Amino acid sequence: MNEDKIDDANDSKGEDRYTVPALARGLQLLMSFNRDERELTGAELSRRLDLPRASVFRMLQTLEQAGFVERMGDGASYKLGLSVLRLGFEYLASMELTEHGRPVIEHLRDLCGYSAHVVVRDNSEVVFVAKAAGRSAMFHSIQVGARLPAHATVLGRLLLSDLDIQGLQHLYPEEPLPAYTTRTPTTLAQLKGLIDEDRARGYAVSQGGFEIGISTIAAPVFNDRSEVVACVSITVPAQRVQEGELDELISQVRNAATQLTERLSHTPHRGQWMNNPSGKKTL
Question: Nearest-CA neighbor of 252 among 99, 98, 116?
Answer without folding.
Answer: 116
